[in-house]
Design brief:
Length: 405
């Protein structure tokens, strides 16, 4: 197992005609050059965008190129998948039309009667989908507080539990799950561990190197980072039968990402190693300043030394703790909503991970049954000047408080 603080250098896959001998370049080096791809026809340093939906058969009735139709596969999608696999230290990655399409493909690959354990704190859209779909698919489902490893151990049904799903840090409370420990518990019971690593991104955490079997991302978030693509990613520790089944579900269900979106995502992956640390630096700066704020009761951010998830996060995250934090305002839901109403620079919008900072009253979105407190505002830190971000939020908090005093 790779130590999380090991140098960020993927193993060299060995020399060959397409892969001349080279030093073990760092992930950021390989991502910046999209794995060094040079178009053989034109010598272009940017790979062409393949939009064709169909491909000519060879005279012998075969498809020597490996491409026959664009629903199962696409060359532009493959290129982005290769970069994502490199970033996650995975033998293979798959791109989907959304994060939800990627996540639900994993649950769809399970068999009726399988038992699944998922976190209490997780992306609400997937939690709702699981609540509605698991009974229909005869999946047995338990929600567990994943920061309590004893609770996870107790929930396991050896031989029947086939999947443990974790999300770390978990949206929107940023609960941290110990990936290596959760993998140990899952494997001891004969289950796979899948990690939604959307918030961490491969810049901060590589779950497969910590023992996870699958990693999932909403590529819509920091991987793309420019709020102009909806995409989903899966990467696997092994190209095994389960992975093949997930691939068949993507091909049969038509859930592949479109080539133009794959092209845009590829373009964004080239700068992930610049954006992610800048956004994480902005987030910790805000967390430290907001925690002393008179109208903020609590700041939730795993980068804060007194956060309950900090010790585990410090072990399994490198280069910072991500762009996402939440604040609990003094004055309840009304003060939170009034604060969001008064920002000028922050954008009052859902989603996360983009270069522009977003603020959201999360309980309004998640509705009844959410573990999200009503006084919580979710903050997605972009790349703006942290002084501007803080002063805008500070003014909004003070104006909201004055309005409600
Ligand atoms: N996982 C997390 C942590 C998310 O925040 C989201 C979306 O907000 C998703 C999954 C779903 O991704 P998508 O919106 O790309 O379907």
């Amino acid at each position: 197992m790779t130590r999380p603080d090991a140098p960020d250098r993927p193993a060299d896959t060995g020399p060959g005609p397409e892969n001349p001998p080279r030093p073990a370049w760092a992930a950021r080096t390989l991502a910046a050059q999209a794995l060094g791809h040079v178009d053989p026809a034109t010598r272009a340093v940017v790979a062409p965008l393949h939009v064709s939906t169909t491909f000519v058969r060879d005279a012998d009735n075969g498809y020597a190129s490996g491409f026959s139709y664009a629903r199962p596969d696409n060359a532009t999608v493959r290129q982005a998948e290769a970069v994502l696999a490199m970033l996650e230290a995975a033998p293979a990655a798959m791109l989907f039309g959304s994060g939800m399409a990627a996540a639900t493909a994993v649950f769809s690959a399970l068999e009726p009667g399988d038992h699944v354990v998922a976190p209490v704190v997780m992306y609400w859209g997937l939690k709702r989908w699981l609540g509605e779909e698991a009974p229909r698919r005869r999946l047995d489902l338990d929600f567990v507080a994943m920061d309590d490893l004893d609770a996870l151990r107790t929930a396991m049904r050896p031989g029947r539990t086939k999947l443990v799903w974790i999300e770390t840090p978990g949206n929107p409370l940023w609960t941290v799950t110990d990936i290596a420990a959760a993998a140990g518990i899952a494997h001891a019971a004969g289950a796979r561990l899948a990690a939604d690593s959307t918030v961490a991104s491969p810049f901060h955490t590589k779950p497969l190197t910590l023992g996870a079997d699958l990693v999932m991302h909403s590529g819509t978030k920091i991987l793309n980072g420019h709020s102009d693509v909806v995409a989903g990613v899966l990467a696997t520790a092994r190209a095994d039968a389960f992975w093949a089944r997930v691939g068949a579900i993507r091909a049969g269900g038509g859930a592949i990402l479109g080539p133009f979106e794959a092209y845009l995502l590829m373009r964004s992956l080239r700068t992930l190693h610049l954006r992610a640390p800048a956004q994480a630096a902005g987030a910790i700066d805000l967390a430290l300043r907001l925690r002393g704020h008179p109208h903020v009761a609590r700041v939730l951010y795993p980068g804060l030394p007194d956060d309950s998830g900090h010790a585990v996060a410090a072990r399994q995250m490198t280069g910072g703790f991500g762009a996402m934090l939440s604040i609990r305002t003094r004055g309840g839901a009304a003060a939170a909503v009034a604060t969001a109403a008064r920002v000028a620079l922050w954008k009052r919008a859902t989603s996360l991970g983009g270069v522009e900072s977003l603020i959201e009253h999360r309980a309004s979105v998640e509705g009844p049954g959410t573990p999200c407190p009503p006084d919580l505002l979710r903050l997605s830190t972009g790349i703006e000047d942290p002084d501007d971000l803080f002063s805008d939020l500070d003014a909004a908090l003070r104006a909201a408080h004055a309005g409600h005093a």
